Amino acid sequence: MHFYIVALLFAIAGTFVAAGVSCFLPGLHVYNVMGFVVLFYLPFIDVVEPFLMLMFLAGMVTGFGILFTISTIYYSAPDDTTAFYFMPTQKYLMVGRGHEAAMFAGIGGLMGLFALVIILPFFMGFLATLRELVGPHIHWLLGSIIAFLLISEWPREYGRSKMHMFDLDMSYKGDLDKGRIPEALKTGISEWKKPLGRDVVITKPRNFEWEIGDGRRTYIIHETSPLKDTTTGEFKSPPRLMVLNRTPKWYRLKEAYKSNAAGVLTFALASWLGMLVFFKTMVPPDRAFQTLMPTFVGLFATSAIVLAFISRVKVPKQHLAKCYDLDTETIAKGSGSGALAGIFAAFIPAVTPGVSGTLGGNATGLRDDKIFIMNGGTNRVVYYVGAIALFLLPLLHLRRGGMAINVNLFFVPQTTEQFLLITAAIAICGFISFVMLIYASKFVAKLVERIQYQYLNLIVLCIIIAIIFLMTSWQGLGLMFVATMIGLVPVMWNSRRLNLLAVILVPIWLNMAGVGPMIAEMMGLA
Amino acid sequence: MKGFTHFLCGIAVATAFGLAVDAAAEHMAQIIILGGIFGYMPDFLDFKVARFLEDYDYEVDPTLEGDINAQRIAELFVEAIHKARDTGKYTNIKFNTMKIGADTWRQYGIMVDNENKRIIVKIGPLVTTGKSPIPETTPPDEEGIGVAHYDAELEHTYEAWTYADIMSGPDYGLVPQPKEGNIRLDFIPWHRKWSHSLTCGLAVAPFGLLAYLGISWLFAGSDWVFNPELAVVVFMICLYAYWLHVIVDQFGVMGSNLFPPFTKKRSQGLSLFHSGLSIANFGTNWISVAVILYNLNYFADERVFGTNPVKYFVLTTIIPLTILVLIRYFWLKKTRPKQEDDKEEQKFLEKIDEIMEYGSGDNV
Amino acid sequence: METELCPLCGSEIEKGRACPFCGDAPAPAEELKPEPVPEKKAPLTDDEKLARIEQAYLDGKMTKEQYEKNKVKFAKTDTPAAVPPSVTKPPAAVPPPVAVPSAAAFLKEEPAKIEEDPDPGKECLSCGHVIGSKSECPRCAAKQYNRLSEKKIIAISMVLLLLGAVYLGAAGIYAETDITVVADIQESDNFRNMRIVGKVIGVPDFYPEKYEPTGVLRLLVDDGTGDIWVRLVSSVTLTLIEEGRIPGFGDTVDAEGALFVGDEGYMQVKVRDKNLFHILERNYTELGVSDLVPSVKSDYYVGQLVSVNGRIVDKFYLDGFAWIFDLADESGNSISVFMPETIEQLTGELDVNSIFLSEVNIKGALEWYEGGREWEIIPGSTTDITVTAPYTGDTYLTMTVGEMLANATALENLYVQVENVTVEWRYEDWLFSVSDSTTYDELSIFVDYNANSSTNIKEGDVMTVRGWVTYYDSNDNGVPDLDEWELKIREASSDFALDVSELWGGN
Description:
The complex is a heterotrimer. Chain B is 49% helix and 15% strand. Chain B is of the alpha+beta class. Chain B folds into two domains: 3-51 and 194-307, no CATH class; 58-189, no CATH class. In chain B, the strands form two sheets. In chain B, strands 3, 4, 5, 6 and 7 form a five-stranded antiparallel beta sheet that branches. Chain B has a four-stranded mixed beta sheet with strand order 1-2-8-9, covered by helices on one side. Chain C is an alpha+beta fold. In chain C, 18% of the residues lie in helices and 30% in strands. Chain C is rod-shaped, with a radius of gyration of 59 Å. Classes of the chains: A alpha+beta, B alpha+beta, C alpha+beta. The B-C interface holds B 69, 71, 75, 78-79, 82, 86, 109, 111, 116, 118, 120, 122, 133, 135-136, 141-142, 145, 147-149, 158-161, 336-337, 339, 345, 349, 360, 362-364 and C 34-35, 83-84, 86-90, 95-96, 98, 100-104, 106-110, 138-141.
């Protein structure tokens, strides 16, 4: 029992470390912190029992799972998992409901912990069977996910069928009504190098619109209504005559797919970056285990921070709610779909909560920002904490993600006792993290009010740069810079940020499909 | 159904082919992905291609104008109705959205109030791309409402607001029906006109085969060998996945035009549920996953569990889904008043769910 | 621009231009209209004039200034702000009031019953905006009823604590680690926790720390199915040293720790916790020297724990490595006792002087020494050699050199005194040979360092020698030849080799 108490204390210490990092060192991915901790632990492996270190890491991961929402919401520094619900939380922040948004995610995380602690142990046999069954097919599963992400992105534009050429003076309206074609109109059209031929006919097929055509081309003259200020009712400017050209169908498709093109570009760039990072050691060799860190930080955290900084957002006063706009149905829907998505992400390699959350949302057809945020919170906790639980689950011992890679350096799970201890730690640390979230969120909300948001962004950015430099030197900073530029593409061109996850999805998919080295060679990386 | 549901159904179809599963397990073949892609294809063709190729007789484009004039929009709609009435020809009208910023749109709603023979247009608040309203941006009623009366017999439509808010907006088709002496109002008339058909599946599937052949040749290079059996399997995966999408959509309310160019009209769906329903999607996904796992096990070199399909599906699908449906039924009975949705309402809701990425809002 | 008032309608119009309101301008020819609209001929009312003024402004026929001026003329004080007119409104009918149905009626269920709140200054519970008694905040759309309180959710989260306690209890039930069979251990078990129970089959290796009174202990443990190295980390070793629980050759140990697999399949179990290492009870077999000498390998097993009484009759120090003692019984049989320096480092220094020539009891494990084809005893600790009777001197048999050499084999390991013998050959003071008149053969005398012996011995000196009968196998044939027998003068003993003049206290 004495050992159990020591083990629990280690776990709780890990939770406090996670709280500190989440509140004061934003943008750091939990696996990077874990990597650092393991690096410092290994020389002392004979002094501290490995299982105690595992308990510390379990407490830390549980704490991160719940508390990292603070970093995402208040510092605009998401990671690849919180980027999924980053936008809705920012909306809440801008109406003073940042704390409530943090609690939505936290409650989602809490439900995720319940799911892990209560349900997971009883699914051991099923999960073991599933792993055996699905194991040889992971490669096409990943490929399917990539295919779905690409084809499911909606065009953000609507593909206008008319294009504005120039304006005609309102005084010509009378001429148009009389069926006369003003010279100014002919001249204007000629300047567009598509002059009207002979036998030009003018018609008025609709109110406020005339059509002028020569059989080959048709131009529309559209009379706008006067611009009015909808709040005061005052006229802002008089009506005008717009000369429009019908756009060809290919032009409409081109317009509509601008954002999709940006999405594909994002995907391609992220894939290229991922292949580079996987096949070439960009950072100092002794820190090679942290190669992905500057990449992820750049893609998700610093790009979001840069955007928040240049958009000069002013965060309003935050209201520290004591009760939350949530009902049982919302909690059930959000956490149910989040739990499924999280287990999916924990089970399948390379799939992160961002991807699984999108798929889960599609699969369950759920809407509403609250459900979205809660889904994200549950998803994240089930993914991270679930990875540890699955790692220790007897019959399964599933190794997934950075957590397993780090822990495997010094520990291999074996017994049921270990699993039960870890689960106990997860439950207890989960409670502690959740309570800490309530107070930490309130504290940071007040902090954010006092410090101007731009300064806060700048401080956060400096902290992140310092950490990246310390961990991965100049090379890592360079990598982070490139990743930041790529991370800004979807934001600037209004496409999905999810495409950035190609940085791990594509290399792992290609490797699993057996063509990774070939592609890398074609890219000149191997 | 949601896009992901169709995608997953397509994957399930692909896993029904032993050769494909074997190729995936032994040779890392990616054929199964084609099932998902072609399962999604009909909606892709409709919502991401066909909708941009339609030409409209009447078009509202507030972005071009820089403003939304509710009254003028209402009057334009009335004009379209009167034109269809007077000319006896099909007329369509499109309501484009108004983009204010990168993530901001001005919402406006359109309602066909057939009882009072009027069109009502109301300008709503600014919304984000996620359809969340931005507070305190709704104009006052006197500034933001337009009403116009029409003089024609419209076939009874379900009274609801449709919103032009994000991305591409809604559109209507006005179909004169001389026999009935009225004009039928079709919401998003281009939807499922030709894409959700069995003939289109036949036309599109060969492209899947060509893509597979091309990509496999690219990777294999000089070692490439044409495998006719596999090619047939690939073609069938693409075709059946496409067809399954069409068949699954028949369970909804809308139906589709199944054999263009030989048929012109959309068939009626079986109306078992409206396809945007959460439980319908979830249930279909569940069934798809169960089928996928069954197939993977069936075609595995070493099976992990028994292959009695009855036992398997009863345990993994029928029982859990029944429990879920019952829970939902009793939950709804307890928490919500009884709603009698008529067919028109269901059809409308189905279309709304299909066209709107994030579902319909209720801000107006 | 010069303006004037229209004489018909009074509108301010541009001087010289036709009034657009009164219809005195010529009708436009072939005007394009989308559909014919019936014209109204009735006289214009003020409202209609106002409408026309507004239309004129919309049509660009009037500047804003003019519009404002004319508006004032015809606008009534109680008339609301002008609304742009509709051109397709039915001219006579007034549209019925716009009763905009709520979308909620069609698309969603009715909200739950709202709790009444008479407080008009009430703030939204989510964003803090003042909303009064509204059930939904108009600013953030948050519901003000049926909300989840902070206290409630903390109470729910406490269930996790309870679950944690349950799992802790369950962990206790599963606490015992199963014993691992060495033969089943694979390289893929790297880092797995192992519990090995077996016999230590070699002398433990000790790697001391440079500046600490501890080090790493390494044992080879055989559980009957195979052997594996067990490594005790410094902290564990220190504890064992302090508690005097050093495992020795032949001990049965229970060790639990993680398996480490090194290069070329080297495996060891690393014990990091002192509570996870136990030496199981030691059971010694009481044997005599004669039971062990002579014997064959099959008589006993390697590692068998034995307790043997005898007398340490000889000692030999392998510098920096080990002490080797000869333990003999009364019949002269002797067995080697091997005490590695490691044991001294771990269990304390051995007082060699106190045990040499004394009667002792030695506890240790049997090791088969292939070179000599004989058993040897390896104690587990310096405390395993206990003096049962300290050396007080030996009893010597007095005889001639001839008698001694004739019965050398029988006298081996016994103590003999030869008197008045002459030094026949001298190598050094510590090695010379003597003889007497009873034989032509010579008896070698070997003097230990610090033994009681004369110095400056010369050939021809007459001496009395008493010592321990042994032989030095110079040709390594395993059999003592006549000229290989010697009397050994042992240090710290009653042996001596003295010139007769010294014997009785002479110079």
